[in-house]
Design a protein that fits this description.
It is built from 7 helices and 5 strands; from the N terminus they run ααβββββααααα. It is α+β, with helices and mostly antiparallel strands. It starts with a helix and ends with a helix.
């Protein structure tokens, strides 16, 4: 993202530089700003998550020659159920939302790393948002509530599904490694298990950041809900808490 674009967004939407700093540096963060009673606010969530992808040497090179275990590198898995090779890729979800009492005034701004790194693109996120609109579950929520926070929460489900799929693949792969490691005494399999154990500690910290982000959304209702145009403050706590608990 070039400087003129950053300057335009910062000026038009009054976005604090810390959103771009945390996004560019992949630093988990969550905060509320620009709070105006009965009018709206800005909320930001930047989080890292893990998703499964098909192995591509050009997109995610291996660093098997390094002695140190780099927890932020992609974790390569050899699928037990198919010959296709996959890897667990660390991805970024960086969202800044302007919540407004104006029905057409709310905006979501997202930052995406370069497409060459095989991370989630703006086009991919846009497609997912459209798919959310086709869901009967979310359609019902959007019909009952004017609160744009629910769309923000729906996007977080993308990261949650990615975590679920990734950990499922990792569980199957670890079982395979343990079984074959015991039966063959292969040192390479033992080494891979140690690498995964280091990654698991890192993943646990990322999941904790995800939990904190969902809790932040649950505990930070939009000030616009206090406006006379909204009669949803009590419903917000009920519906949002229910959906947030599912995420957590």
């Amino acid at each position: 993202m070039k400087h003129p674009v950053l300057q335009m967004l910062g000026t038009r939407y009054n976005i604090e530089p810390c959103f771009f700093t945390s996004s560019l540096n992949w630093i988990p963060s969550r905060y509320q700003e620009e709070v105006v009673k009965k009018k709206g606010d800005h909320i930001t969530v930047t989080l890292l998550f893990v998703r499964t992808a098909i192995w591509d040497k050009s997109a995610a090179p291996l660093h098997s020659g390094e002695k140190a275990i780099a927890t932020q590198e992609s974790l390569r898995l050899c699928s037990v159920l198919s010959p296709a090779e996959k890897y667990l890729l660390q991805d970024l979800l960086a969202l800044h939302m302007i919540r407004s009492s104006d029905p057409n005034g709310s905006t979501i701004i997202s930052y995406h790393p370069s497409a060459q790194w095989n991370r989630t693109t703006a086009e991919r996120l846009k497609h997912l948002v459209h798919k959310v609109g086709e869901s009967v579950y979310w359609q019902k929520i959007f019909e009952q509530s004017k609160d744009p926070t629910f769309l923000f929460l729906a996007i977080l489900w993308y990261a949650l599904y990615a975590w679920d799929e990734s950990l499922d693949h990792l569980y199957i792969h670890m079982n395979w490694l343990e079984t074959n490691g015991l039966s063959t005494n292969d040192n390479n399999l033992t080494t891979e298990l140690h690498t995964i154990q280091a990654q698991l500690l890192h993943y646990a910290s990322l999941l904790e950041e995800f939990r904190k982000s969902v809790t932040f959304i649950r505990n930070t209702p939009s000030p616009a809900l206090e406006s006379s145009e909204y009669t949803e403050v009590e419903e917000y706590y009920g519906s949002c808490e229910s959906d947030c608990e599912l995420c957590r």
